Amino acid sequence: MPKDKFFKVIENKIHPNEKLVSTHCSYCGMQCGMNLRVDTTTNKIIGVEPRYDFPVNLGKMCPKGVTAYQQVNHPDRIQRPLIRTDASLKGTAEGFREASWEEALDLIVSKFKELQHNYGKDTLSVYSGVSMTNEKCYLTGKFARVALQTRYIDYNGRFCMSSAAAGLNRSLGIDRGSTIPWTDIHQTDCLFLAGSNAAECHPTSMFRIWEVQNRGGYLIVADPRETPLARRADIHLDLRPGTDLALANGIVHLLIENGHIDEDFIRNHTNGFEETKEVVATFTPEYVSEITGVSVEKIVRAADIFGRAPDAIVMFCRGVEQQAKGTDNVSAYTNMSLVTGKIGRPKSGVATLTGQGNGQGGREHGQKADQLPGYRKLDNPEHVREIACAWGIPAEEMPQKGVSAYEMFQLMKDKTIRSLYLLCSNPVVSAPNLNHVRESLKSLDFMVCCDFYLSESAEYADVVLPVTTWAEDDGTTTNLEGRIIRHRQAQEWFAESKPDWWIQIEIAKRMGRGKFFTYLKSPQDIFNEIRQVSKGGVADYYGVTYEKIDQNNGVFWPCREEGDEGQPHLFLDKKFYHPDGKAKICALPYRPPAEEPDEEYPLRLTTGRVVFHYLSGNQTRRIPFLKDMYPDPLLEVHPKTATRYGIEHDELVTLKTRRGEAQYRVKVIEAIREDTVFVPYHWGKAQSINLLTNPALDPYSKMPEFKACAAKIIKHKHGGVRHG
Ligand SMILES: Nc1nc2c(c(=O)[nH]1)N[C@H]1C(S)=C(S)[C@@H](COP(=O)(O)OP(=O)(O)OC[C@H]3O[C@@H](n4cnc5c(=O)[nH]c(N)nc54)[C@H](O)[C@@H]3O)O[C@H]1N2
Ligand SMILES: Nc1nc2c(c(=O)[nH]1)N[C@H]1C(S)=C(S)[C@@H](COP(=O)(O)OP(=O)(O)OC[C@H]3O[C@@H](n4cnc5c(=O)[nH]c(N)nc54)[C@H](O)[C@@H]3O)O[C@H]1N2
Ligand code: SF4
Ligand SMILES: [Mo]
Fold this sequence. Notes:
Blueprint: E1 18-24, E2 33-39, E3 44-50, H1 63-67, E4 82-84, E5 96-98, H2 101-119, E6 124-128, H3 134-147, E7 153-155, H4 162-172, E8 190-194, H5 198-201, H6 206-214, E9 218-222, H7 228-232, E10 235-237, H8 244-257, H9 263-269, E11 270-271, H10 273-280, H11 285-292, H12 296-308, E12 312-316, H13 318-321, H14 326-340, E13 349-352, E14 371-372, E15 376-377, H15 381-391, H16 405-413, E16 419-423, H17 427-430, H18 434-442, E17 446-451, E18 463-466, E19 475-478, E20 483-487, H19 500-510, H20 523-534, H21 546-552, E21 555-556, E22 583-584, E23 603-608, H22 624-629, E24 634-637, H23 639-645, E25 652-656, E26 661-668, E27 676-680, E28 694-697, E29 704-705, E30 709-715
Parallel strand pairs: 6-7, 6-16, 8-9, 8-12, 9-10, 11-22, 12-13, 16-17, 17-18, 23-27, 24-26
Antiparallel strand pairs: 1-2, 2-3, 4-5, 4-18, 14-15, 19-20, 20-21, 23-30, 25-26, 25-30, 28-29
Iron/sulfur cluster binds at residues 25, 27-28, 30-32, 57, 61-62, 64-65, 202-204.
Organism: Brevibacillus brevis (strain 47 / JCM 6285 / NBRC 100599)
Keywords: 4Fe-4S, Iron, Iron-sulfur, Metal-binding, Molybdenum, Oxidoreductase
Enzyme class: oxidoreductase
């Protein structure tokens, strides 16, 4: 790939008694290149330097990235396996004793066997995450289906990328988050970003995003809050939470009316235009303004700028996806690119900003309830046969498809599921409607949690297994562009911790299923299996090798042959991945959020992130700098709303919804709509905003409605402003 205008050769300085290990950040989907500094006398990681040679971040990093290394030798690391001695203390950090690996693994396997003997194979479940490498994500799917032989596996991407995946699959026939490499972004003429707080959540994208304006291009942002991105945008579409579908339909309506559509492209490369035209016909700027609260002028101007721009990129993130109609929102925004033909060429396209480090790769290789490696589907008998054959099991033995993450917690409550193997996620903080989820975990007969810190979820476990961090193991991840990259081991396994793959292989052996795993001795062995098994699938990794990744700074999938260089741009041949080669323009009638404000709950609550913390906060709340910068969650309230409730900045109030309540200090801020309040979700226990969120699920993706529900503020009798 050609070097872009930001590329500079800067050598990393190596200090005496140190070596640099070239790898990537553990956190978000940007997967910034970094070098870990290792003291060669102690062989411990002691610091970090950005990598200038990785084309995505080119030497830039954010506050989380520069402190990520502090996780590795942190005093809170779990040193050895823990076994629960007092069941009455479930839900607390008390009531555990240390144990050997032998004892812990034997206990797990005897419990699994006993439960399966009494209640059938599907009584076990696996809930996983995508902060893990492709190797671990892939193996977890195989572990559930081949070692544990259960249908019940799902993962935290259900709460993250599931609507993007469902929407992109429906519209384009493929779910690669971005149709273009990140090095295209700054070269476009119009960047339309919906529901993304990129300055805080994908901070190292910002130099490219600002460059669009520096070059004379336009930035249009749709967000109920005036985020740093929205503040500098040419147009800020400050919509009510949960109304994106109306906004997107309204813009498509105007693109058609203004003659800004590409008729040749529509005729030759898409289906569905006529039906869509009919549906959007009623979405006049006035009607859209009524639903969204955005002024008619702004809607008209946004559509005009987007329509006139020679090249344009539509980007969206969880703000539009974490809704009970997230899938429709994704397809509706994708319609903007499809009707204008601004897709399938450099500098134009569609991108969702993938959340977790391996949010892309981790959703391709079989951690989803209905999916097998290479993006194959469990309800396709041909796909099942292919994977069963690759794994060496009879096709009839392949477990059926399971259910989505939140539905799994429901099945625990009614005892259909009696055991959970949890890894790489902290659902006691991150799942919606937590009162229910916490009860579900309590009702389990036996729960295992694999983590490197004792998370809020680990406190519900019967056995806790200490795992290695990202910096102690080799492997690959696939970043938000679809680029497969290498992570490298910089330090030995901490204390008695083990990598997730090692643990799963040991359990498989003890379950009597070892023969399906024995030849996997290292991450590279597992990667080679992914190559074989994904061959012929949509997400085809066959042509990717560790060596090729090293030589090219990553390889974009699909990469079908050893000689193939991978595809940074998708659809350059205007072939979409539906059987007829055409993309689908989707006709999508509007529907309101699952829960609208009313007299009792008059406010709209939306939730999300701040720059200093990551997801459930289990990793970042322990890093001194990050904790100091943002110690506790704050409730963002517009000054006029604060006046209406008679509350002041920093006052402690109760926020309540139909599902639960929690107390927060108020942050009075103009950068939010008057009818909306916002709380970040990175905290556990009584501070969890997910005690309040709505588990209404999207019918296609099964994504909960994290981004919109009805709430009220309750003022405390005796104030609560801190003084001094
Ligand atoms: N600092 C930090 N960075 C992260 C993460 C983190 O935890 N912390 N997590 C990573 C992960 S896993 C993810 S998924 C991404 C998430 O990245 P983002 O999606 O950018 O983050 P959020 O804060 O969840 O939501 C984005 C924006 O959506 C807006 N929003 C809320 N409701 C609506 C709505 O109805 N419509 C529209 N259009 N916008 C709405 C919010 O005001 C917010 O500014 O970030 C990744 N990067
Ligand atoms: N209200 C609200 N809720 C949300 C969201 C929102 O916007 N609003 N966003 C949702 C989104 S987008 C996401 S991605 C989810 C994420 O929510 P979670 O899935 O809870 O994410 P993490 O906090 O990353 O949890 C990962 C856990 O695994 C551990 N861990 C890290 N790496 C490894 C590893 O390699 N192996 C193992 N075994 N453990 C590891 C970490 O210490 C941590 O405890 O939250 C969702 N919840
Ligand atoms: S932007 Fe994301 S990948 Fe880059 S340093 Fe920050 S958290 Fe890490
Ligand atoms: Mo996410």
